## 1
Amino acid sequence: METSEAVDDYLKAILELGGAEDSRVTTNALAERLGVRTPSVTGMLQKLASQHPALVRYERYRGVRLTANGKRRAWELVRHHRLIELFLHDVLKYSWDEVHEEAERLEHFISERFEDRVAAILGDPEVDPHGHAIPPKHEAGPYRAEVPLVAWPLHKPAVISSVSDRNAVALRELERLGLMPGVALTVEQSTPAAFAVRVQARSSPVRLGNDLAGYIQVAATDRRP
Ligand SMILES: [Zn+2]
């Protein structure tokens, strides 16, 4: 039998993969994201779809979407996750590469009271340590306008809006290179083999692999690095 944590993980994965357009998510994409086999995904989705109230709408071969109930739970988990990350980082002094794993565990269990107290002590924050928006209580989103750094045009000023929280090694490397949310940059070189950005307060361009650059999202800015 599935634990409620496993159900939560499905809901969050469908929310993330569906994105701002709320598109249908395939069982293959879910299997890859969750690291489980496709038949187990199918079994779980059938269960979530037949539950009352249903958490997903699932049609074989057409993929899956969250119902209103599924979305409510998924956004609550996102809020928990990001609030916990910020609490661990700002109050308990965890480093930014340590907080994700801890938040993945705790996000399922905290009470409404705990959530409210954390939000209050942090001053109702809007952004987590990785630059991700913290949804307001009982609300969805917001989705911010951001673009993968690897798709950003050359020489056009940008500011790092967020970085992926999923890879601790990559986060440590990004911190070492000074590539954190709020930092302004321009892309100087972008080829499959090499990627270089000019960053504020650094005289020479920062070189990084395309894989590492793939963790960064940016937005337009007036600031020149
Ligand atoms: Zn995280």
## 2
Amino acid sequence: MKAMVITQYGGPDVFSETEMPDPHPGPGQVSIDVTHSAVGLIDSFIRRGTIPIFEPPFVPGLEVAGTIRELGEGVTEFRIGEPVVTLSLMSLGGYATVTVANAALTISLDGFKVDPALAVSALPNAAAAYLALTKVAHIQEGENVLIHGAIGGLASAFPAIARSLGASRIVGTVRTASKLEAARELDYDDVILAEDFPSAIANEKFNIVVDPVGGDMLTSSLDLMAPLGRALLVGNASEQPVNILSNTLWFNNIGVQGFNVGGYLLGNPSAGRPAAKAVLRLLEEGKLDIPLTILPLQNASEAHRRMDAKEITGRIVLRNEF
Ligand SMILES: NC(=O)c1ccc[n+]([C@@H]2O[C@H](COP(=O)([O-])OP(=O)(O)OC[C@H]3O[C@@H](n4cnc5c(N)ncnc54)[C@H](OP(=O)(O)O)[C@@H]3O)[C@@H](O)[C@H]2O)c1
């Protein structure tokens, strides 16, 4: 197989196109002929070594779409050639023409009219949103939701999922005016500029805050939270620390909880399929149509350059053109 290998921690140019032996699935795994691999900001953190979970050289890539190539021992629920998409895999390996995945975290697209590039862009993050909103925030019918970095890869999956779970009012923030229009195409009732936050919505209260940005965005959100409000810390795109005074939580009856879908599914793989099932219908109905940029797999460096430069609206996907 061909793979885009990270040879050392560093900038977007550390990728090397490499010929490697095809991987074969172990028990409970499948191998996948990859058609598309999603790129997320976490891939940049892993590439730079900010999240040092693997020592170079390694093949990055947490989420792929493709077709089943081989079944590992004990896997009976797929047929060879079946179209699939994976949820977020902590094992990496997605920037390759063949990868292996935990079968329990592999979702069949059989019978669904879904473009694989969109599926790999939206489904893993939408499943993360579903799990975060149901298992952590315990969202209730009629609640108000505030989502920061509203058109980012992860955040853009949240409004449709929150709406499907009964959210009443959903407000997003974006940093640049050029991204307002794209965010307004999603299921937000209102999208405001981060520079106008919190003053533009200072008279509102939110039951749930979804924050993939970190830093001051979360700290400034605490004053807007309704009693018994839950803030979900789901990322740190700003790479800034979040400073929260414990008394603020105590006095205001509010809470902040982290959620990381890859780590969660590693320990709870059986939670993946029900979450994916809940979001597949929305995907097919076009309710998760987030903006996509598609580049050849060979252009992993360029994809990472754009990701680092914050040039992406929605998601960026690598297509296998080998
Ligand atoms: N919890 C999970 O399971 C999970 C899953 C996937 C990703 N993540 C994490 O979520 C975060 C976002 O990942 P992603 O792939 O969605 O990245 P992304 O597509 O680059 O989106 C990041 C968003 O954050 C905004 N942003 C960045 N820096 C900011 C700042 N200083 N102030 C305000 N807004 C800022 C960006 O706004 P602009 O568009 O205006 O630049 C963009 O909308 C990362 O930390 C990633 O590791 C977590």
